[in-house]
């Protein structure tokens, strides 16, 4: 019997304690044994990157990290984006958007209706977000869940005739699509300046995008920002979008994240859409969000 070598092969870093534990549903995995307050080794970065591509949503439990550590970790995956609503930046950290229903001295401290409609983050930009990270700061005793829908599965589940009909189609995305509707019912949406409106000019993306790293196709239209499908009559576009919105969030494609203290959730906007499930008005909820710039969808 040959002896088991006592030393690790020369090119291997010491065995990592990270465990990737896939969730039973259509997406998601828990990442255990990683402290995001510490520098991330290249070997661990590669494992996280691979797991992110494989599972689309990663949940890092029990992270006691500062906003700067969230920014540093997020930056390992690409340049960060700054949200057009500057009033909800975390002071000193323009890359961190405060997502919260809390008011202090009568003023909202964060964007309380972020995620009110299904969406993929910043799909209204020429380069939408590759990934987003939300870190729990303060959680309600009830509600406050975040839902995710697997858009590879949604595409694969479409009838063949519909897949063919979508082939080569492009759709417009606009930050302003639901802005006035949200403004009418919430205290979180200030009137936009001309400069802000120019920053979020409508863009056009394929209705079905190809994931640039895995090559998998995904549906890429969402009820928050997608306004119309180009090249077909207005009423057909409206009906087709309504059908796609319904088909893309069927129960078999969904994972509902029930937040635990210290959770950091990192999702792939090229593979999933998400929705804030809602928080009762009298309960406080606060999370910090960073978004990583992606590439131009194709
Ligand atoms: C978001 O859409 O980024 C926020 C989601 C949430 O608050 O659950």
TrEMBL record:
Determine if Metal-binding is one of this entry's keywords: yes
InterPro entries cross-referenced by the UniProt entry? TauD-like_sf (IPR042098), TauD/TfdA-like (IPR003819), TfdA_dioxygenase (IPR051178)
A molecular function annotated in GO for this UniProt entry is: metal ion binding
Q: What is one Pfam family matched by this protein?
A: TauD
Region annotation Disordered: where it falls in the sequence: 1-20
Q: Which residues form the TauD/TfdA-like domain?
A: 19-291
User: What keywords sit in the KW lines?
Assistant: Dioxygenase, Iron, Metal-binding, Oxidoreductase
UniProt cross-references to PANTHER family, sorted A to Z: (3R)-3-[(CARBOXYMETHYL)AMINO]FATTY ACID OXYGENASE_DECARBOXYLASE, DIOXYGENASE RV0097-RELATED
Name of the molecule in the record:
Taurine dioxygenase
Q: Which organism is it from?
A: Bordetella genomosp. 9
């Amino acid at each position: 019997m040959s002896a088991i070598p006592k030393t690790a092969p020369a090119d291997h870093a010491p065995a990592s304690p990270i465990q990737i534990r896939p969730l039973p549903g259509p997406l998601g995995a828990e990442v255990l044994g990683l402290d995001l307050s510490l520098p991330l080794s290249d070997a661990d970065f590669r494992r996280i990157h691979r797991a992110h591509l494989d599972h689309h949503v990663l949940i890092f439990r029990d992270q006691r990290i500062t906003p700067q550590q969230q920014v540093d970790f997020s930056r390992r995956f690409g340049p960060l984006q700054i949200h057009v609503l500057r009033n909800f930046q975390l002071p000193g950290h323009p890359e961190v958007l405060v997502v919260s229903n809390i008011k202090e001295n009568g003023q909202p401290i964060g964007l309380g209706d972020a995620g009110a409609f299904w969406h993929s983050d910043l799909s209204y930009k020429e380069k939408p977000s590759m990934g987003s990270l939300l870190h729990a700061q303060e959680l309600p005793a009830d509600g406050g869940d975040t839902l995710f829908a697997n858009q590879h599965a949604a595409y694969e589940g479409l009838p063949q005739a519909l897949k063919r009909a979508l082939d080569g189609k492009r759709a417009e995305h606009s930050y302003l699509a639901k802005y006035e509707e949200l403004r009418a019912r919430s205290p979180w949406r200030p009137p936009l300046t001309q400069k802000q409106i120019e920053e979020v000019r409508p863009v056009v993306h394929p209705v079905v995008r190809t994931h640039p790293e895995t090559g998998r196709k995904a549906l890429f239209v969402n009820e928050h920002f997608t306004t119309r499908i180009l090249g077909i009559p207005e009423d057909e576009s409206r009906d087709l979008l309504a059908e796609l919105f319904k088909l893309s969030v069927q129960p078999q494609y969904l994972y509902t994240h029930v937040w635990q203290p210290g959770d950091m959730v990192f999702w792939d906007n090229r593979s999933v859409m998400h929705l804030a499930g809602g928080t009762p008005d009298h309960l406080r909820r606060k999370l910090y969000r960073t978004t990583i710039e992606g590439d131009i969808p194709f």
